[in-house]
Specification:
By secondary structure, the chain is mainly α. The chain is 33% helix and 7% strand.
């Protein structure tokens, strides 16, 4: 019987001890990266490709915002209540929005999402991934470019979608709070998890709410995953960044910033206001809650027992680049108190005059 030299074994397998348990890691064929499961090794090439060619060299820009939006719009197409009625309730995070693009992009809630679907299509073909896997992988990699974000989980192994998701499964910004919470509840999310998912708006911008001003951010720091979204939505709205009267938009507190009606109402509803407020000055809580809710969203409709955990391929984001504050020119007096059981936290005020927030540039 022949034995491999010890050095060769070490090159193939590294062992670490964490919390008393032995964790074995496999060295990938590139000789550089290690993973817990060899099936994850091909993802490093995919990661490096999309970082360079989709995310403009690893930036937290427009394609990251749109890729993160796509993870949600694909996955939330999942309705157990429709299934209980004998109808097709959708396959959840199965890539149907890309496979059946001609159908699902016709749904009003998916307006404009065809742009990122078409950008991602080239990479899906090039790397021979299922659309469901690629959409969730790209979202997790993309958000890692945003300072302050958590390292999201990624599980590999979604089969290809076989049918389009039903219409009306994606909530709209003009929906009532009752309707939004009911839709999320149908998919298995609590009101607290709804707010946790809305942390994604900290690195988001609107292109189609007011088509005259594409790239208008939801808060003053759209390249940072930080609590500013939970602070600034709580400020009293006084203006529209473009033209008023757009469906799903309400007045915002700051020039160049757009506010969704749904965000405004959820921040002030008795079922969600206190949890919303609790994230306004708690970066760690925001990270933890978002990571947990995204892990749940990313596998809706999937058999997790048949999937491989490849979370170790996702980059670790940089630490937060900001600290919670009230934008210059405003003060604590501009906060609209909504939580009945605790006061809004006292925050430092950014120095300097009020200035307009610039739009997120296209790539």
């Amino acid at each position: 019987m022949a034995f491999k030299p010890l050095a060769a074994l070490v090159a193939l397998l590294s062992v670490s001890i964490a919390h008393g348990a032995i964790t074995r890691r496999v060295t990938c064929p590139d000789g550089v990266n290690t993973v817990a499961n060899a099936a994850c090794c091909p993802l490093f090439a995919v990661r490096d490709d999309i970082q360079e060619s989709l995310f403009d060299g690893g930036k937290c820009g427009e394609e990251v915002h749109e890729s993160l939006r796509l993870t949600f719009h694909d996955a939330i197409g999942f309705s157990p209540s429709l299934t209980a009625q004998g109808k097709f309730g959708g396959g959840g995070a199965d890539g149907s929005i890309a496979i059946f693009e001609s159908i699902e992009t016709g749904y009003h809630a998916n307006l404009g999402i065809d742009e990122i679907i078409n950008e991602q299509a080239t990479f899906i073909l090039k790397h021979n991934m299922t659309a469901g896997d690629f959409i969730q992988f790209a979202g997790a990699v993309g958000v890692s470019n945003c300072p302050g974000a958590p390292q999201l989980e990624f599980l590999l192994g979604r089969p290809a979608a076989t049918a389009p998701a039903p219409d009306k499964t994606v909530p709209e910004p003009f929906d009532t709070v009752d309707s939004i919470l009911a839709r999320f509840g149908d998919a298995g999310f609590s009101p607290q998890e709804v707010i946790a998912l809305l942390a994604s708006h900290s690195v988001a911008a609107a292109d189609h709410v007011d088509p005259a001003i594409p790239g208008t951010p939801f808060d003053s720091t759209p390249s940072d995953f930080d609590p500013q979204i939970f602070i600034e939505v709580q400020l009293r709205g006084t203006l529209f960044p473009g033209t008023g009267g757009n469906q799903g938009e309400v007045e915002s507190p700051y020039p160049g910033e757009i506010r969704l009606q749904s965000d405004h109402n959820l921040a002030r509803d008795s079922r969600t206001a206190c949890f919303w407020q609790s994230l306004a000055n708690n970066q760690q809580q925001m990270q933890a809650q978002f990571k947990a809710a995204m892990a749940k969203l990313a596998v809706l409709g999937q058999d997790v027992s048949q999937m491989v955990d490849c979370s170790d391929v996702i980059p670790v984001p940089l630490p937060p680049a900001t600290t919670p504050h009230i934008p210059a020119g405003l003060s604590q007096n501009n906060i609209e108190q909504a939580c009945a059981t605790a006061a809004f936290p006292t925050l430092p005020i950014d120095v300097g005059p009020q200035t307009s927030i610039p739009p997120v540039p296209g790539s």
